[in-house]
Design brief:
alpha/beta; Rossmann fold; 4-stranded parallel sheet; about 35% helix; globular
Length: about 675
């Protein structure tokens, strides 16, 4: 028999003083919403679950948005639940305390719907921990009609297959509208006199953007690759297209104020959604298309409301590329005119490497102590930045660095990736060389006060990107490159950090996996894998044993190049971007081709065709894709047909297509730079 909220509270009184950071588990924060469960007008109760600890989940903007949106309806309530740290998990299991909602301490089993956020792969085993602590069967197939509906959303759902066994449904795309449609479908199903789980799945599958894994069957070829993922029920569409918001919804203005320090202890306003830069490694830049912008006046009003409602001393203007927000200069100017005297700190992350960005940060930081200024060039040579379609000249980067140091910043942070396609040892050494050049600029301007911090991660080829077909670099090569950088980046003024290659490998096979990965995840969890994003708990041995127990090969999933004709595990999920466009960009990468900002030249990625009705409804100033039927000056670039698959004669090994040194960067769009590629058919 499940414990009542009162019984849970009494049990917590006996154990909370024994655990680290007990405020993680108490609730009651300013602006949290605790509705009365006895209120007869409340029909559906939703638990919003973030599968990591409070300090990370408490500041997650997506969770705050859904919490606000659901609780605005008087007939609904939403509460939060987070993954416990191992010390608290021990007491929950020892004393039989179920995982519970923070607001009223009702156990998860009392809720109608439990919705998990999956922003990144390292959280997957934590989902199983939370399901188990909630008292639920881990797999959707083992739950009855009496169990809550278990759903998921977030970027991780763009390849839903590794976690598909554990969820009734998974939302593809933006959740602000679809979550309410899911709730309405659940309420309708609940009125059925003899309801079954299958009936609920059928209703959910009819909602655009909702993927119901049980209604699809995965089949495999003799070589282990996917033959097809096909619907096994008439309610299931052959392809699930993501949901998008035509216009960004109103921002949250009552952020929950935590009792303890969280990762982002500030208010946040999303000023723009999507990105038009087309970096070939970046999943977010592909899946969050198209670009939609929030009006300046709406942002400024939200800042006023947040200050009044929350008391935060810092607000962050969020986007994937803040410099590309059309009105960024006006926004910064008006914000500082209104709030500069109040010492409000304003963050503007994701700025491009240019003097304009320095000017913006200079205005925002005026009169404050200046510490670090962050760049993310991702590659250290002009050639390799062309490969990844981030064409920043090294000379421009050094000029911007000089401006940064001249204006009082003492530290420049630069983030790079290793493992890019075509990367050589010279490209890796260039990271150290560029770091020393930047430091030399700083020492010339500031003397010994100048510092450089270098962070290096390994490329993980992500679904729905042009690099989804490339292999992840071999571990021995990655370790050799890290050691090379360690030797080259010694000395005063330079700090070097890097990601553990084994942790990156786990991310790679989870993001590229198929349904068989669900068995691996569950087995690794049973062997002790949890809190994989926390170094002290990372358990690579559990993953190795899980693969061995199931007879699977992690390198086959992570480090294998895919031919373009291979059916990928996520091919029945559409982000709106055409496979042909991604394949075209894949080939362009090896040819050194650079595409412009797609607001300058439309390259026919597929978004406008998939969402033509939404585009017609959207105001031009909010939706940055050109209006359908207009804007003829920005024609799609159709001169580059590409093979959708390689036959034997087209293999890279035979043609050497991907082995030659790509040319140095040139000016102009890709249409002016590359020769057409013949479309090859079997």
């Amino acid at each position: 028999m499940a414990l009542s909220p009162r019984q849970i509270t009494r049990a917590l009184d006996r154990v909370l003083h024994k655990v680290e950071q007990p405020a993680r588990y108490t609730g009651g924060e300013l602006n949290s919403i605790a509705k009365d469960w006895a209120d007869p007008s409340i029909r559906t109760k939703v638990a919003l679950a973030f599968p990591d600890i409070y300090e990370l989940g408490g500041s997650n903007l997506g969770l705050q948005v859904l919490y606000d949106r659901i609780n605005r309806r008087p007939d609904l309530l939403a509460e939060r639940v987070f993954c416990p740290w191992p010390d608290f998990e021990f007491y929950l299991r020892r004393d039989g305390i179920p995982l519970y909602g923070l607001e009223t301490r009702h156990p998860l089993g009392d809720f109608d719907i439990v919705g998990f956020s999956l922003p990144y792969e390292q959280l997957y085993t934590n989902v199983l921990t939370m399901l188990d602590l909630g008292g639920f069967p881990l797999r959707a197939a083992d739950r009855s009609a009496e169990h809550p509906l278990i759903i998921a959303g977030g970027s991780g759902c763009y390849n839903p297959e590794p976690m598909s066994a554990f969820f009734d449904a998974m939302v593809i795309g933006e959740g602000e509208e679809v979550i309410l449609e899911v709730i309405d479908a659940y309420e309708q199903w609940r009125q059925e006199p003899e309801r079954t789980r299958l009936q609920l799945w059928e209703q959910l599958a009819r909602i655009p953007g909702v993927y119901v894994p049980a209604l699809y069957t995965a089949s495999y070829a003799a070589d282990g690759t996917i033959a097809a993922v096909t619907p096994n029920h008439p309610a299931a569409p052959r392809e699930v297209l993501k949901r998008v918001m035509t216009v960004l919804p109103p921002p949250v203005i009552r952020f929950i104020v935590p009792y303890i320090n969280v990762v982002h202890n500030r208010a946040a306003i999303e000023i723009m959604r999507g990105c038009t830069r087309g970096c070939r490694f970046c999943q977010a830049g592909m899946i969050f298309r198209p670009v939609r912008e929030r009006p300046v006046d709406e942002v400024l009003q939200a800042v006023d409301d947040m200050i009044a409602n929350c008391g935060f001393e810092e607000v962050s203007f969020l986007s994937l590329s803040s410099s590309d927000y059309t009105y960024v200069a006006e926004l910064v100017r008006r914000t500082m005119e209104k709030h500069g005297a109040k010492r409000l700190s304003v963050g503007l992350p994701s700025l491009r490497i240019e003097s304009f960005s320095v000017d913006l940060m200079d205005l925002l930081e005026k009169g404050r102590r200046r510490s670090g200024f962050t760049f993310a060039p991702e590659a250290a040579t002009d050639r390799l930045r062309d490969v990844i379609n981030k064409p920043i000249a090294s000379a421009d980067l050094l000029a911007t660095a000089e401006e940064v140091y001249k204006r009082g910043w003492t530290t420049i942070k630069m983030y790079f990736m290793i493992g890019h396609p075509t990367q050589t040892l010279d490209d890796v050494q260039a990271i150290a060389d560029l770091a020393r050049e930047v430091l030399a600029v700083g020492r010339r301007v500031l003397g010994k006060k100048a510092n450089v911090r270098i962070g290096v991660s390994t490329l993980v080829p992500k679904p729905h990107t042009p690099f989804q077909w490339v292999p992840m670099e071999d571990e021995a090569v990655i370790r050799a490159q890290i050691e090379q950088l360690q030797r080259s980046l010694r000395g005063p003024g330079i700090h070097f950090s890097w990601n553990d290659p084994e942790e990156t490998l786990v991310e790679a096979f989870l993001t590229r996996g198929d349904r068989r990965m669900g068995d691996v995840i569950q087995r690794a969890w049973e062997l002790g894998a949890k809190l994989e994003g926390w170094g002290e708990y990372f358990n690579f041995g559990a993953w190795q044993q899980a693969f061995a127990d199931l007879g699977l090969d992690m390198d086959w999933y992570a480090r294998r190049a895919r031919p373009i004709d291979e059916v990928l595990p996520w091919e029945h999920i559409s982000a709106g971007v055409k496979k042909q466009f991604l394949a075209q960009e894949y080939v362009h990468a090896y040819q050194g081709g650079v595409v412009d900002d797609c607001r300058e030249h439309c390259f026919s990625c597929g978004i406008l065709g998939q969402f033509k009705e939404q585009r017609r409804e959207a105001p031009d100033e909010a939706w940055e894709c050109p209006p359908l039927g207009r804007g003829k000056a920005r024609q799609p670039v159709n001169a580059m047909p590409v093979p959708l698959y390689f036959n034997d004669d087209m293999s890279p090994e035979r043609t050497g297509q991907f082995d030659h040194r790509v040319p140095q960067r040139r000016e102009g769009t890709v249409s002016k730079r590359l020769q057409p590629i013949e479309l090859v058919q079997d």
